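Preliminary data (for renewal application), calcium ion complex.
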Amino acid sequence: MSTIEQVELNEDIYANNGDESQRRDDLDEEQVDPDLQGGFTTQNGKDKFTSDWKSFGSSRYYISSDERNWADSKQHCMDLGGDLVIIDSQEEQEFINTQIKSIYAETRAWIGLSDLETEGVWKWVDGKPLSKFGFWMQDEPNDDKGAEDCVETLYQYNPLKTWNDAICSMDKHCICEINLT
Ligand SMILES: [Ca+2]
Ligand SMILES: [Ca+2]
Ligand SMILES: [Ca+2]
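Predicted structure:
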């Protein structure tokens, strides 16, 4: 499917707000091309690629244009069929830093890492502990004023030092990931 056809299809879907079951049927017939550059949103639980999503490895990524606290950001990502991003490798970290720069250079965005359960024990949103990879900014995490339990990333020239623990109730952009495997 060409990009133009894809755009027209999306417009058709969004224009048709009347018949939910018809929309669902239309979407059921769509095959998602895993190699397609871009990404998807979920409409009625079905994956739908749009230009807002970026592809890296077997995942698709989306940086929100609006800002929410960490918990609402997590819910937002789950509503889209994924979760806050889990950064598993140096390559993924570098990719995220590049995306932040290209989309919102001054942006701070939540990632799926927190020490909400146990202070100082960093866990990803899938419950796995932060292992050998940690791309903290210098002197972070510092749990400033004993109040910082959620992790944001912001664009840095050194892509391997971009994380900061911050106050979870603050509104920030967020990075969602959907793993297709
Ligand atoms: Ca990941
Ligand atoms: Ca903390
Ligand atoms: Ca901090």
